[in-house]
Amino acid sequence: MSYNLLKGKKGIIFGALDERSIAWKTAERVHEEGGEFVLTNAPIAMRMGTINQLAEKTGSQIIPADATSVEDLENLVEKSMEILGGKLDFVLHSIGMSINVRKGRHYTDQKYDWTQKGTDVSAMSFHKVMQTLYKADAMNEWGSIVALTYMAAQRVFPDYNDMADNKAYLESIARSFGYFFGKDKKVRVNTISQSPTPTTAGSGVKGFDGFFSYADEMSPLGNATALECADYTITLFSDLTKMVTLQNLFHDGGFSNMGVSAKIMEAFMKE
Fold it and tell me: What is the C-alpha end-to-end distance of the chain, expressed in Å?
């Protein structure tokens, strides 16, 4: 169902890889709600995914950009404003990567050059994106910037590895830069802390299936899907949330406020 919430709004969506990704679902929903956007991802990620299909489906252009490169980001922002015909109203940062996770290195045995690369891609890139937008005065007043995060930023999930640190840093950047973006430009910055979601990136975490099932049983509403996260993101891009900023917003079926659920207790009692 469409409500025309984003009619006339323009933006950039980072990180759409394939139809499983939250950024992909968000792009589809933005399109349905009347928004226009430029799609972007790192060149290597674009070779792995099917972003061209999404661009065709939504009538969007693609600008490859390495989100860790300020030069690439400056080019992205400049060209996006040219393509879209003016300043931006929304930006989605949906980027995360850990080489330590990918290579199976334990948290207590990190290879630190891999750690630094992961931090740059997963968290520092958010600062670089916002700094580029800020310096270029590229956002319209009451625009909205959203980044995707996970509750491992606040609580221990051992197999999430150094991505937990990256997400904690990401959330801090959102608050700190969000203050300046709000005060100086009337732009809001928030993070969405999503349920474990079977995306290509999320499924790469060790023990993901068990982890997904545990969260689903713990949450009174169950896990939120990628499409449901996209719907929530749409509300943050819309004018209905103009006074919401500096928030880490849990979109997890209630998991974040649970201590234990009856189903989990029953499972332990059976043992």
Answer: 45
Q: For residue 10, with 0-12 CB atoms within 10 Å meaning exposed, 13-18 middle and 19 or more buried, which class applies? A: buried
Taking the CA atoms of the chain, what radius of gyration do you get in angstroms?
18
Q: How far is CA 88 from CA 65, 169, 187, 221, in A?
A: 17, 25, 11, 34
Q: Quick: pLDDT tens for 183-202.
A: 999 999 999 999 999 876 66
- The angle, 0 to 180 degrees and rounded to 10, between the axes of the packed helices 163-185 and 112-119 is 30
> Using one digit for the tens of pLDDT, what is the confidence trace for 86-101?
999 999 999 999 999 9
Phi-psi group of 194: left, alpha or beta (phi > 0 → left; psi -120 to 50 → alpha; rest → beta): beta
In a domain, 3, yes or no: no
Say which residue the tokens 């070779």 belong to: 47
Containing domain of residue 72, as a range? 10-270
Q: Residue 61's beta-bridge partner residues?
A: 38
pTM: 0.95
On average, the pLDDT of the chain sits at 95
Lowest model confidence (mean pLDDT) among 8-12, 110-114, 155-159, 171-175: 155-159
Amino acid in position 63: I
Residues 6+ apart with CB under 8 A from 80: 12, 38, 63, 88, 138
Residue 221 DSSP class: T
Element (H, E) at 188: strand 188-194
- Report if residue 2 sits inside a domain: no
Q: Looking at residue 261, which CATH number applies to its domain?
A: 3.40.50.720
Nearest-angstrom CA–CA distance, 268 and 218: 13
Other CB atoms within a 10 A radius of the CB of residue 4 amount to 11
* DSSP at 151: G
> Which tokens go with 167?
């997400």
